[in-house]
Amino acid sequence: MSKIGNAIAVAGANFALVKYWGKRNDALNLPAVGSISITVDSLITKTSVAFKENGSGDSLTMNGELATGSMLARVSRFLDWVREMAGMKLSAVVKTENSFPTGAGLASSASGFAALALAASRAAGLALSPRELSILARQGSGSAARSVFGGFVEMRRGSRDDGRDAVAAELASPAHWPLSVVVAVTGLKPKDVGSRDGMTHSRETSPFYDTWVAGADKDLPQCRGAILERDFDKLADVSEFNCLKMHAVAMASRPGILYWNDTTVALIHEARRMRKDGIPVFFTVDAGPQVKFICLPEAAPQVKKRLAGWPGVKDLIECAVGKGVREWLGEGR
Ligand code: 2P0
Fold first, then answer.
1. Are the beta carbons of 19 and 35 closer than 8 angstroms?
2. CATH of the domain at 60
3. pTM across the whole model
4. Mean predicted lDDT score pLDDT of the chain
5. How many angstroms separate the alpha carbon of residue 110 from the centre of ligand 1?
6. Interval between CA 250 and ligand 1 midpoint (Å)
């Protein structure tokens, strides 16, 4: 085991094509369904962790501001798992920066906990395998288990009570199919209902929840096959189906959860119009109002042109399929 000290890690956000919505165990944060995502290169979290002798409790600085309350408590609990694995009790100074809006449906908890898992474990002197890192990241946030890996990633639901098989793995590398994602940012406020509360509420009140869970067994192999065969139409079909189904489950909760705004709806229609016009593109929407346009790379300029100046679109961010979490050793290294 190496020395306890500091480490810095970077991780990319990921967008699910077959979505994680619902838990089979809240305490261990085990998903009720498997999921498949693309890790992206332009929405990045960079996190540094330093364990200190004589520290008096953990501190967390997010995007330059000292965090307290539930955010600090969630990070501290995560650090407890790392301390337990490393057999030490030192307090940590954590600093984290996102290159994009936090908590607005751009998967900040995915890149955040993936980066924290690597930085904290390395700083604690642990050398975890990618699989162990994914299990650790999952305890912080389910989708973070996927951001440990680059390219196309599948998260397994697992069936073990201890969650050791609820883990992600790379399905295909970024080079296998260099798709582009154009993210249309339509709202920058943190969402009213976080994913965690939204999932619990859906499980407890949505009449569609059990059907949703059962349906994953059909969507996952279709999505996996479309990726491995690089079949864009098949990927578009299963991804849009799964996305609208997830939102239908949330909307049918009581009271209903609606993550979309007017622009989200207009852009979903526009994605379908673009495809009718022959542009290879489809949409997906996560727990927020942003619309992700997934397209063949040669279509990205056309997609951006169709969306430029669209009323309600605050920003367009183009992403490529990106790498998994890695240690940050300094600029250019
Ligand atoms: C996903 N989402 O598969 C889905 C689609 C949101 C919509 O994974 O409770 O923040 O921390 O495990 O990882 C968001 O869920 O939830 C998410 P927790 P997380 O990307």
1. yes
2. 3.30.230.10
3. 0.96
4. 95
5. 8
6. 13
